[in-house]
Amino acid sequence: MSEAALSLxxxxxxxQTYIDTQANLDLLRFITCGSVDDGKSTLxxxxxxxxQLVFEDxxxxxxxDSKRQGTQGGDIDFALLVDGLAAEREQGITIDxxxxxxxxxxxxxxxxxxxxxxQYTRNxxxxxxxxxxxxxxxxxxxxLLTQTRRHSFITSLLGIKHVVxxxxxxxxxxxxxxVFDEIVRDYGVFAEQLSFETITPIPLSALKxxxxxxxxxxxxxxQGPTLLGYLETVNxxxxxxxxxxxxxxxxxNRPNADFRGFAGTVVAGSVSRGEEVRILPSGxxxxxxxxxxxxDNLDAAHADQAVTLTLDREVDASRGDVIxxxxxxxxxxxxxxxxxxxxxxxxxxxxRSYWLMMGTTRINATIxxxxxxxxxxxxxxxxxxxxxxxxxxxxxxSFDRPVPFESYQDCKGLGSFVLVxxxxxxxxxAGMINYALRRAKNIHRHSHEVDKAARERLNGHKGKVxxxxxxxxxxxxxxxxxxxxxxxxxxxxxxxxxxxxxxxxLNKDLGFTxxxxxxxxxxxxxxxxxxxxAGLVVITAFISPFRSERDMARALFxxxxxxxxxxxxxxxxxxxxxxxxxxxxxxxxxLPHFTxxxxxxxxxxxxxxxxxxxxxxxxxxxxxxxxxx
Length: 629
Description:
By secondary structure, this protein is α+β, with helices and mostly antiparallel strands. The protein is built from 18 helices and 29 strands. A 6-stranded mixed β-sheet has the order 2-3-1-4-5-6, sandwiched between helices. A hairpin with a 6-residue loop joins β19 (361-374) and β20 (381-382). The protein starts with a helix and ends with a helix.
């Protein structure tokens, strides 16, 4: 064999050895976070550059970009390695989460550079949700800021146990140990209320490279690790395989009549062929017949593995169900205490309903109570009726059906969720389940001998709700009164829930803020449901300005029990009628949050009946309602 052939064989052997070594390296996911301009992107860029993980053509491009768009007077601006969006480079800030993959001889890394601006906190939550370690930067000149505390608190809520307190820009304070010690002391006091297991302070200059890769001669007083040294050695391994098996079903794979498998990802624990499992929420039990990974059959599946399970018998399971260890099932509930980070400009209220995405499940969920919001600077608990952008607090969530779950601290895959607006499809909140409410387990629905069907037979007609909605002055109370009289004359058992009358009793504690309006309709809808169960025809006369709450009310009833009636009138006509003088007061600023003036009315898009009351008389409106009903 020739010398050239030997060299080629040796080269191939070395390449294969390198590939095998890299394949077996441990993976660490970490984020950089903190306030704006603390140097997060610069730090990551410097780390990649100093570790020689940037290609020569990238360096050349970086040098050119630094001259055109950099902030270092023509010197290399390492932040440009990470800030890829045009808007980021123009403004000199991070907007989106930038993910970078790199590796050293000791470990593989995925780093998420998260934005520091308060308005992009939702992006920081996204980056932190999968991280093992957080590198929280603090500007040595400015010290701890509100956004530093907010990001630290979110990091703690999301269950990240290991934190690097990276005190950056030490070069701007002449590497003063006293400055570093003061920041470390202040952060330690704040972090006493958080759930970190380890906090490792490191003095840095991302711009100059101090203590990023190599130990700095400027900080001879510091004896701890460099940043990369810490990241290469920190122990983040939990005991995932020691946890009980949890497998949310993502897809039922049925390519032919001979194969039925349940595809998904193991979120906790492990499972082996022949092991007994339970399907939740149904509770059916079966044994694992095969564990399929593409063309291979595995003996076992472990946490984070995506596989298809086949069972030894036919069971009723579909997307959103959870396959668990038969001898260690998780709980099932429909009411929870949860922590929530609000991520939308539109305010969130008690009583408002959203889509909730948890694992592979999508269900309807309602914020039934806001226990408190946090003051980010002090972590004091503040009372609240709503959530605004970037608020963090504790809530009670109610689902429309029971679901399998784990607390977030025990299993992120079954304890984390996002709330989605059902109309805009915006993600409005991200949350973590703390525990199921005890009352959900102690309260049971009772069956009675005299049920709704029996009451309807006695009344001689079915129960129904006629939900009248429209601006103040659209004629709701007048039409409702006339409709009830006509039905009464026909022997129909009726009751009117009028907005003003209800506010004299049941809802007299509510004002007219958006949050109070939401709660006003929620209570009214629940009362209407009880009356329909009693076999009555209920007529409501409420402005009910928000589409979300009208849909929430509709969801309480069977499909043929809810009739939405839109009393459609132009604002100028309603204002001209102004039977109570409310529009005039609102125009003078005496009635804040008045619908149509400084609070919106969301007109129905799919109402069963539209009554243009500027064109129809009351008698004509009644005739149309009776014809429809």
